[in-house]
Queue: 2 jobs
Job 1
Amino acid sequence: MSGEDKALLAITMGDAAGSGPEIITKALAEPGVKKLCRPVVIGDAETMKEAFSFTKAPGEVRAIGKLAEARFQDGIVEVIDRHNIELDKLTRGHVDPMAGKAAYEYIKLGTEMTLAGEADAIVTSAINKEALNKAGYHYDGHTQLLAELCGVADVAMMLVTGKLRVSHVSTHVSLKEAIERVQPARILTVLRLTSDAVKQMGIAEPKMAVSGLNPHSGEGGLFGDEEIKFIAPAVEEAKKQGMNVVGPLPPDSVFLRTHEGQFDAAIAMYHDQGHIAVKMLGITFGVNVTLGLPIIRTSVDHGTNFGKAGKGTADPTSLIEAIKLASAMVQNRKRLAK
Amino acid sequence: MNRDKPLIAVTLGDITGIGPEILVKVITEGPPENCRLLAIGDAQVLHASFAALGAKFDLPAFRSIEEAAVSEAQVMVLDLNQGGGELLALARPHPEAGRMAAEALIQSARWAKEGKVDGVVFGPLVKETLYLGKKKYNDETEMMREQLEAPLMKSVAKIGDIFRITIAEHVPLQKIPEFITRENVLEAIEILQEALTMYGVKSPRIAVAALNPHAGEGGLVGREEIDHIAPAIEEAKQKGIDVYGPIPADTVYVRAFKGQYDGVVNMYHDQANIALKMAGFGEIVIIFARSPVIITTPSHGPAYGKAGKGTADPGNLRVAIEVAASLAQRKLTQ
């Protein structure tokens, strides 16, 4: 793939006090990454320079003012410099509202650039929710913030680890509230968003499996009736709409079966149901994808890793996978549009 | 000297399922060396089970427990003379088979209580046919609690080196928050501590899983952690238990499998089972805590779909016998 064909990715630097900047230096030094995309970092140039000094990754920072100045040369990491971190005041390894505010600004700009079509997709490094909140931005994480910036309501979180793709009916709500959110309309929405996303991931006719809510999928109503009342009708409706979907299947085997390749994606009814399955596979190479946005957005599947900040040892695998997945989705979107 | 080894009674379980087959396989493939194995059931049924697998039945069979107890044999049979040959590998639940399985289990446990055997392993059985005489029980724990006069008995699972207890097992998800009380969480921690100690784990480290995502995130997404789970953990700590949590459910097994904990308290069924299936754990042994006698069982059911095919895997039963023998050995040497 040459030049213009490669996906132009807006990579947000994330929380400056964490290891987000460091994993970017490592990820962009990967030869495979540069072959797939044209990356530009949205962040703070001085912070990125310091990150290079921590990781000793090959490459150097070039601060730019706007995307049009980017030249995408080898060995150069171009940073759209928001100049919003005072390094001597930054409390590395701890929650810092300055870093939270800065992280918000990167996401906002990255989203705007992608919505405007200047970038093909946005890839986000780790943020800290508490820092974001302390800076005055009250979101439960990236997903909610992105939905608001894009002006959409129906979004869903998908985790991707190898062959296992899991979309969630709900995420950051209590278990009690999660149970209330298991409603046919929402399940159908998540199925539709999942189907679209899996197609963008290169699978023409996605096979999907829907998990039950209760142990053994309720065992015919013995251990709960949400399967009968809400989940099965949603699956039936999805089939009528032409989707290739089965369920509800017992929660303790549906994710393993998906991982083994029987399905292209599984739908989890609540946060931990999907997350337990994904994290057992190893959290270092998972990718978080937001479904339902008008733009392609992938992200690392881990937090700011404050414990490793400044040490140069943080693992960039999840970010590398997020970049690869975003690049592939951009290419498939172009192909599907033809 | 075989006589020095603990004598473990192993019942056939539901003979319409895979119970007899897996026991015969354990015996013919080489029984666990850390015990004397006393198969409890009908000798004719066992005979037929050996024949079905093309194996020769040449075990000493006794009619009285006293005779068996003084035998030098490593594997022997206590013939309950129950009959039931026509039910073997019937591949569906049958009340008569359920009754035989329950009788063998309770008889073995009584012998254990009287000190005639050192431990009991019961073969897989099903709740729907759990009859003792005319009385129907909801599950084996309920039956043993009553029959052994041990109202506090509770099952704990041993998964590799990790012990697990689940507070609300087969319960609709909606009802689970009702079970998450400070008392229930504390009791679960204490039972797990007892089971681990019984198995010989010194100063066990116990993790308590949270109920809500991200362990409730300081009350933002659920309050059970603050109101019930954390106070129970504090109380357990004050009692000297090395306990951690509430730990987010999506990382508690990741950490446990790295060796960070010896035991995990789960709030509900799938919290544990999704993680274990993903990790590929098949051989889970159930151990009964707060029991007057040592009792274990494999975690799987009678697997009717596999009955009579000769393809059932005896691995889980073997581990259940080894665990019972190891528990009995500890008790004998204490």
Job 2
Amino acid sequence: MDGCSFAVPRGKISGLIGPNGSGKTTTFNLLTGLATPDSGEVIYRGENLAGLKPYQIFRKGVTRTFQVTRIFREMTVLENMLSVTGLDVPDRVARERAAELIAFVNLTHLRAEYGGRLSYGQQKLLEFARALMTDPDLILLDEPAAGVNRTLLQHLLDHIHRLEERGKTILIVEHDMGVIMNHCERIFVLDGGVKVAEGPPAEIQRDERVLEAYFGRRRVAGRTGGRRGAGAPPSEASEI
Amino acid sequence: MTRGEHLRNLALLGTSAIALAILPHALSVYLRSFALFTMMYVVLALAWNIVSGFTGYTSFGHVAFYGIGAYASAILTADYGWHWLPTLGVGAVLAAAVGAVIGYPVLRLKGPYFAIAMLGTAEGTRVIATVWDSLTHGGLGISFPSAENSLETYDAMLTLMLVTIVVAHVVGHSRFGISLNAIREDEVAAEALGINATLYKLAAFVLSAVFPAVAGGIQAYKVLYIDPPSVFFVQITIAMALMAMLGGKGTVIGPILGAVLLYTAQELTWVNFPTAHLIAYGLFIVLVARFMPRGLVGFAIDRGWVRKGMVH
Amino acid sequence: MERSEVRSLYLLAVFLACAYTVPFLVGAWAGTVRFDERWLGNLATVVVAGVMQGGVYAMFALGLTLIFGVMRIINAAHGEMVMMGAYLTWVCFFYLGVDPLLSMVLTLPVAFLFGVAVQKLLLNAVVGQPELTALLITFDLGLTMIYTAELIFTTDFRAIPYAPGTVHLTRTIAVGQNKVISFVLAVVISTAVYLFLKLSRLGKAVRATALNAEVAMVCGVDVRRIYLITTGFGAALAAAGGALVSIQFGFNPETGVVYTLQAFAIIVLGGRGNYMGALIGGLMLAVLENLVSLMVPNGTAVVELAAYGLMIFVLLIRPGGLMGVKEG
């Protein structure tokens, strides 16, 4: 990241997009304590989270899912869920909540199965459910739509909206533009570790810099040249 | 576990406890000894499992704590005239302290480096025991004032084993145990999900240090003589690890099973093939590590005989 | 190097400097240090001897680092392979009457084949798996080797009396002839192996496999064969170390454990998988050990602690070692 600065609106769903390698996951890592910034702050509810350990940040109500699922493979679905609550929460409460969330993502019939034996889509759902166990206030979702079928995705998005209604703040990293444009109120665009644009979906869709980030700069209309956005395949660029 | 299962386990434990308590009176001294050693290995395997099976931090040096317990008991009894029972408590506290001090830096190392560091720790403790002869009598070893104590030590070891089983069971089937497993599965993700890995690892490590220490104390009193090589015997380390692995790392029944089976097998081979048994033992270890890393319980789980997971 | 790298290197340097002064401090406290000419001559001799021993250490550490670099396998039986080399040399000397140095012509190929066998039977299957599995297997292999050696040779210490004279490098520094010869041979063998790896086709294949086995495979390298060869070389280097050790020190089946610890300490200090690191590490460890055994009371027993302490601190301060090897 290189001098990037933005403010996520509370109680809304926001999107974080950008080509591969632009720093989206790094941003999540910085926000959750998996990475420490060399300079700068992470302000959450008036408090600077930079430098805190991940578990401390989690306890303040920030949670996330991972781009490549990091569920606990040799533990059952139920155990995955129960591993998250702090030990101060009574057992019964934890189990109830776990059962609730497992049911929400339709994994009840698999609750005694090892996480590693679930299909990829099911693992993503498990991770989503797991992230919600402690009723967090800031939820960072790293590519929640990848590998999930349309019906379940809609189900997920409904739940995300319901979370928003309850006042939760959600930040989604996604490549699926349908999800981003149709569900986010505000979008932040990264490229090469820098924020290149910010605004509501309608603006972003028309923003030159965003297109440039994804598809590369045009020197002459119809021909491509110069710097390519990281990860943009050559054939696409030459078709502009 | 369901309530029914808890009761069942308790009943099982209770009956075995009673049976084992009555047993020594019916056995020859040799068999009494054999039973005591088997129980000791159950303790060691279970304790090792608490840190290495649950958190995945495989320690190759837990024999250090065993040795600390043995020496605490020996020094206090032989040189200071203590009665041996309280010395076990001292050994336990000492091991916990050492565990905390060593564990804090060493648990920052990953996988094999942690294992090697613990191996070095065990070696280091042995060297210290040899060199600090004003305290430990060095290579001369320490002799206890002798006494016929096979019943006393048997009962002590039985009690220790029961306590260890209960603790291991409670830890293993609790949310604390799940958190430990989470650390093993993916420490970074576990931290991101609110688990204070540093603290939990250390807690598991210290807990796992206490039981071997008490076992060492009892053992020392039983054999009435210890010296550095006998007590910091690297084979004890490997036995702990192997028994837990054979039975099934990360479960509670596993180490118990592994300890009983392996120790019995070891005794049988020793009796019948006194010279070659160590080599056979070594080869056996290699085979288990290579072909059956998830142990007997893992095998049973794969076959569906045992339920998956520790919490249901 | 990025900031944290520089910082950790600096910390490591400071730590090492402290580590070297510790023996002096302990010695001053214990009264074993005297600043007269004779003692200083002693000190110089000990340091030089350390450098020479370091050469031998570096050589067998090279074997370990080679195995790790190519396969990410930590060979916990490496010290036992050194011990095996020592015993093989001893057997050649006492039963066949062959000069220990000459017998390397026999013992090294035998060790090489042993390494190949170990790799083929035990380790090939676990190359991709977490390093701990291989560690456990090799640890047990080492134990088995110790037991076998005890069975055949008993736990008595052996040594080979050889080149008993001393070489006077300066007026005050006199080192045993056997040490000098060992050092020279160690350097020769290490250099030969190093050149082989750098220049020969096979050597390049080995290095390619170390960097990225999949890519090497795609380029036509028979990776499995390379693994066999690597472990073979590792075992041979260890055995060479054993041969050179056998003419300097006494050994018994259990001394292998210390060699393993030393080899670990060396490659951690120097940087796992790094050849130059193995050399530097070897020299540094040997000199430190000699300082300790000179000045610390009960030094010879405590020497192991030096290796262990060194290793632990390096792992905590700068796990990549002096040469800064990265993970992965």
